[in-house]
Each structure stands twice: as C-alpha cells, then as structure tokens.
C-alpha cells in the first residue's frame, strides 16, 4: 500500500511484479480491490500498477467537482512519480474513459491501450438519452449506496453460482462515499473525446462483454475510428467482465499484451 500527493489530494496505489509497466484503472464506485482476479496472473509478467481514482477506495475524496480530464491528470502525476516511462494501460468502464482521455492527451506515454466495456463519450443528444440519464441521476441521489450496490450486484452477477460474488460486490459498493460517488457520476455525463480518437496510434484492444450495457455495435463503430484497434467479444459476460469471466479476460489481455510487448520500446516517442 502506497500513497502520493497530487494537487493536494492523497492518492492510493499498489505495485506488484516486474517488467514493462501495466496500469489498471477501475470503474465508477470501484477500487483497486476489484482487480483481485487479475493481480497474481498479470504480475507474473509485468510491473503491475493499480490506482484508486480520486474519490474512490483509499484515495482522498475532496469536496470539489471531479472530471475525467482531472482523473487523467492524476494518472499522469502517478506515472511521473513512479518514473515509469510509457505504459500499457487498461481501463474498465469509467476507467476506460480515463484511458481514452489519457490516450488522446498523452499518446507518447502509451505502449498499448485496452478499453473494457466503455465508450469515448457520454453525450446527451436525444430525448431518450436525456430521459435515461435523468432517471439514473435521480436514482443515484435518492437511493442509498447499499440499495444501489444490491441492485447493481444483482444485475451484473445474476447466476445462482455467483451468489458469493454478488454479496461481496454489494458490500463493497455500499462502502463508497456518497458525495464522491455522485461527483464522479457527474464527471461522466457530457464528457467525450470521440472526435480525437485518431490521435491514438498505439496498439489498442477494445474488450466488450456480449451483455454489456452498451451494444457491441457501438464498440464496432468507435473501434473503426482508432488506427490500430481491434475488438474482442467475451461471451456470457456483463459489465464487470474481469470479475465474471476472469480467465477469459486474463487470457485475452495477456495475448494482446504479448503481441505488443514484442515491439521494441525506446523513448517516450516509441508509440
């Protein structure tokens, strides 16, 4: 367990293993803990770096507006603090949004990029978009985090054999700070970098669960905008793919990373 400070905020991170640096970024209401089924396997091959995004886990939860560019700046500060040079970056859901932001702002800092069940923008354009986000915004404020956690866990892990995972994840979500959770939720709505995706020139893998919130067709569309990107679909999975299909996820990610790691890496301009 370690901490560093950026702009007055103490941020928690963890390191495991040796080799090329590999960063994992969690989603909304999550933390480093939720990569538990990846740590041992990935640390056998890479210098694994996990960070609790501002407002989450063991990181500080300052009373301020949060933003995806701000989360990206925190990541940049961590990489400079650890003197990693270019990294492999994996982001799940909101962490994938931070990954997109980081990739378009700092393409020279990436060896590769993996986006999991995420999107490069969350824009409210249609009446249906407005209704859906207004409903989620209202429920997030009205319901307790315990209720939200139970509902999410039931939706993400519906199988009878997932009862223990369902219980554990509901408990973790309930421990979130409500104000920080809402500030992070608000940071997502209206954000977007889709028009800048052409700036991402490193090898890119987009992983989509077949039963994710957003359809596979959406991923196919934005993958076509990224020069060196491909899409991998994981069957019988929902939004939390690293938890509900850990073996398939780890295998898919490691195969991608092995292919990108064979490319010589030099200075920051190597991507």
TrEMBL record:
Keywords: Hydrolase. One of its GO terms (molecular function) is hydrolase activity. Residues 21-244 form the AB hydrolase-1 domain. Pfam families: Abhydrolase_1. The keyword Hydrolase applies. PANTHER family: AB HYDROLASE SUPERFAMILY PROTEIN YCLE, MONOACYLGLYCEROL LIPASE. This is Alpha/beta hydrolase. It comes from Pseudomonas fontis.
């Amino acid at each position: 367990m370690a901490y560093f400070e950026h702009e007055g905020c103490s941020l928690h991170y963890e390191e495991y293993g040796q080799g090329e640096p590999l960063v994992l970024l969690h989603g909304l209401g999550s933390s480093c803990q939720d990569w538990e089924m990846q740590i041992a396997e990935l640390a056998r091959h890479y210098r694994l770096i996990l960070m609790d995004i501002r407002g989450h886990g063991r990181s500080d939860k300052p009373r301020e507006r949060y933003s995806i560019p701000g989360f990206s700046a925190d990541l940049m500060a961590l990489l400079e603090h650890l003197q990693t040079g270019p990294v492999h970056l994996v982001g799940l859901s909101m962490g994938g949004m931070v990954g997109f932001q980081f990739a378009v702002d700092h393409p020279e800092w990436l060896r590769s990029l993996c986006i999991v069940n995420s999107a490069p923008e969350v824009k409210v354009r249609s009446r249906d978009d407005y209704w859906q986000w207004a409903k989620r915004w209202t429920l997030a404020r009205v319901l307790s985090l315990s209720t939200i956690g139970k509902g999410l866990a039931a939706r993400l892990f519906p199988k009878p054999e997932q009862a223990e995972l369902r219980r554990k994840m509901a408990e973790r979500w309930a421990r979130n700070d409500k104000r920080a959770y809402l500030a992070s939720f608000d940071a997502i709505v209206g954000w977007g970098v889709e028009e800048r995706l052409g700036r991402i020139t490193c090898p890119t893998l987009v992983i989509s669960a077949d039963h994710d919130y957003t359809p596979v067709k959406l991923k196919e569309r934005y993958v076509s905008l990224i020069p060196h990107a491909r899409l991998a679909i994981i069957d019988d999975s929902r939004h939390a793919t690293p938890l509900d299909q850990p073996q398939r996820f780890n295998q898919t990610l490691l195969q991608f990373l092995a292919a990108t790691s064979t490319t010589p890496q030099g200075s920051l301009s190597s991507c």
